[in-house]
Amino acid sequence: MSDQTYIESYLEDTIRIAKGLDRAAIAKAVEVLRQVRDGQGRLFVLGVGGSAGNASHAVNDFRKIAGMECYAPTDNVSELTAWTNDVGWDVVFEKWLEGSRLRQGDGVLVLSVGGGSPKASLNLVRGLDLARARGAKIVSIVSRDGGHAAKVSDACLLVPVVHPDRITPHCEGWQGVLWHLLVNALVQA
Q1: What is the CATH T-level fold of the domain 3-188, as seen in this structure?
Q2: Does pTM top 0.85 for this prediction?
Q3: If you write DSSP's letter for every residue of 131-167 in order, what string do you get?
Q4: CB within 8 A of 173, min separation 6: which ones?
Q5: pLDDT tens-digit readout, 141-150
């Protein structure tokens, strides 16, 4: 495949994803995040790998632009690796959220390609289960079938799969588009 053909194909995928996004789910996510912000709740952004980098950027935008108290556990490598060393990677987000005294009125935003399952990103599953048990609101930006995040979220933004070899780059790229949309929708009201 030539570079030009690949570029055209990738950009056509982007158009198909934009057209396939569930606008009602996006509106629901804005509503949920507004409830958290207006209720003085905190927002915790969870992500692994490239999504962890996105989580850090999203925290900046939710804090600076949308005026929400917001944190990502992956921003403090010392604490994250201490929890990993002491209790294991599978429970690192659960333990971090417990230490942050996650409570009803708070929110969790999950950025993940697969959304977590017993076989992949169990740390997300455990963190989400704690959030649900504590009555925190959950918003997710995921792809594929959404995994565990889709099952427990108050609002799930599912990035459509339009090319099987590009699921991760499309999802992680669209995480940025969608959290920017959410942040700016919060300040428009």
Answers
A1: Rossmann fold (3.40.50)
A2: yes
A3: HHHHT-EEEEEE-TT-HHHHHH-SEEEE-----GGGH
A4: none
A5: 999 999 999 9
